[in-house]
Amino acid sequence: MADRKVLDASYRRSLICGVCVAIFTFLLAGLVADTGTSVTVVTYTTIIYLISMCFIGFRRTNKLTKADHYFVRWGFILIYLLGMLFFPFVWHIRGVD
């Protein structure tokens, strides 16, 4: 029971900030009238973001670098912008339009 890993307080603050950014982006994407493309991209982006946060959280529970903190806080926006560029292109190639 003493071997339990506890998240660092700074990581927890960064993660809360990142989740708030993700929720805010999801709400804004819901307002866009583009037949659901933005909401779909935000959904996929959220899954990718949560998986990457699990990797960062499990690999570096003791000490996070400044780059880790920056990615945890603002990585969702980066992933979302890349997703908005690439997801529709990939859907078009696959014929999902």
Précis, in short:
The protein contains three helices and no strands.
Provide an overview of this structure:
- The structure is a single chain.
- This protein has 97 residues and is an all-alpha fold.
- It has a domain at 31-94.
- 77% of the residues lie in helices and 0% in strands.
- It contains three helices and no strands.
- The protein has helices at residues 9-31, 37-59, 66-94.
- The termini are far apart.
- The relative contact order is 0.17.
- The mean pLDDT is 81.
Class derived from helix and strand content: mainly alpha
Q: Count all strands and give the number.
A: 0
Low-confidence stretches: none
Distance linking N and C termini: 51 Å
Helix tally equals: 3
Shape: elongated
Q: Characterize the main sheet.
A: none
Q: What percentage of residues falls in helices of 4 or more residues?
A: over 70%
Strand fraction equals under 5%
- In round numbers, the mean pLDDT is 81
Order of helices and strands: HHH
Radius of gyration: 16 Å
